[in-house]
# Entry
Amino acid sequence: MKDLIANLNKHFESRVRLGAMSILMVNDWVDFSSLKDLLNVTDGNLASHIKSLETEGYIEVKKQFVGNKPNTSYRATLEGRKAFELHLKALENLLSIKK
# Structure
């Protein structure tokens, strides 16, 4: 009983990272502007959280040009999907505990 929160993933503790991963779990690719608008965060705030998720191997980054404009898109990796699903399962287990 003392390991109730042991399976929660610290990389998803931030509301921005939790939100970004939630969006990426249900979409193939999402561009930076769309993520920023959906999460209602600043460029710098989103960029730092995205970098953290990328460093952990939880998201994949694709940079391309659309017309003449650069476009950066993201998707959850298989490792990221597994880690996020385990995190959600841990939250569900925590919510189901009755005293």
